[in-house]
Specification:
Elements (H helix, E strand, L loop, with lengths): L6 E7 L5 H12 L4 E4 L7 E8 L6 H4 L4 E9 L2 E2 L8 E3 L8 H7 L5 E5 L8 E2 L2 E2 H6 L9 E20 L2 E14 L5 H12 L3 E11 L2 E2 L16 E2 H8 L2 E3 L2 H8 L12 E5 L5 E8 L2 E7 L2
Parallel strand pairs: 3-12, 15-16
Antiparallel strand pairs: 1-3, 1-14, 2-3, 4-11, 4-12, 5-6, 7-10, 8-9, 10-11, 12-13, 16-17, 17-18
């Protein structure tokens, strides 16, 4: 089997798998250990997981910073320790009086630049340890709020239902939502905070990531069964699609190969540089009227 070229594989993650399990599967399929992912998806979640192969793993941290989209369902009336359906219940205030109209009226307060405390059971590090590990060890975890941007937040439909908690039935309201947001936004935290706003509590029962930057579900592939060959997007094409691009002459391309500073005004804060043959060389960052190397890929 010929080696899989460096590039990006857009995976439609199945439910029940961790993001690292997807990485392990791609390692076996691609025949290389050099595989990583951009932006963790919880086991319950499905949808777009951007996986880098070979040299493209060094690009993943930059791809994670793009806008992301999600489709989800919030259940109002119950809370869980993880703020989603995988966690143990922690309360059941019910939501018999809540309506879709009331939910929609609150969404502007959760749109735009907001301060959000991540979900305690998350991959955020506290003193070098993952928050979820501390919670599972029985420790109290208090995470700092962080600034995130919710570009759009829409409630599309609602369904009244009942749910069992401690042997009793409570009235709940399941609300379908669509969110576009910045990297670092927790959709589970949006569900938690909206539920707190109404005094009902809330958690996610469904989460599907619909896109990461330019990579959407239409370009995603399932891994069971795995296609052969893997539909890997080449590193040159990915860099040109994801960043503003500058094509260099041969002399400048040689300088970039050594990571040298360039007397070049970039079109954006972070720009992809290419040699005369169209090969992706590096990401360069503005520094005054010059450009300095952020990451060199040759």
């Amino acid at each position: 089997m010929s080696p899989t070229p460096a590039g990006v594989l857009v995976v439609d993650k199945a439910p029940g798998l961790t993001s690292q399990q997807v990485v392990g599967r791609v390692r076996r399929l691609a025949g290389t250990r050099k595989v990583g992912h951009a932006g963790t998806l919880d086991p319950m979640a499905t949808g777009v997981l951007v996986v880098g192969i070979g040299r493209a793993t060094r690009l993943l941290g930059h791809l994670m910073r793009g806008r992301k989209g999600y489709s989800a369902t919030i259940r109002f009336g119950q809370t869980t320790v993880t703020d989603d359906a995988e966690g143990d219940p922690t309360g059941a205030a019910g939501a018999g009086d809540l309506t879709l109209e009331r939910v929609r009226s609150a969404l502007p307060d959760f749109t735009g630049e907001i301060s959000q405390v991540p979900t305690a059971v998350s991959a955020v590090k506290v003193d070098g340890r993952r928050a979820y590990a501390l919670v599972r060890a029985g420790e109290d975890v208090e995470l700092r709020a962080r600034d995130v941007t919710v570009h759009s937040f829409v409630a599309t439909a609602a369904r009244a239902a009942t749910a069992a908690t401690d042997g009793a039935e409570v009235a709940v309201l399941d609300v379908d939502i669509e969110v576009e947001c910045s990297s670092g936004t927790y959709i589970r935290a949006l569900a938690r905070d909206l539920g707190a706003r109404f005094g009902t509590g809330g958690h996610l029962t469904r989460l599907r990531r619909t896109f990461v930057g330019p990579f959407d579900l239409a370009r995603a592939t399932v891994l069971d069964p795995a296609p052969e060959p893997l539909p890997v997007l080449g590193l040159d094409a990915v860099a040109r699609e994801c960043f503003p691009a500058v094509d260099l002459d041969a002399a400048a391309a040689t300088d970039v190969g050594f990571g040298r500073r360039l007397d070049l005004e970039l079109p954006a804060e972070l720009t992809a540089l290419f040699d005369p043959d169209g090969r992706f060389l590096a990401l360069y960052r503005r520094r005054g009227r010059a450009a300095v190397a952020e990451a060199v890929f040759v």
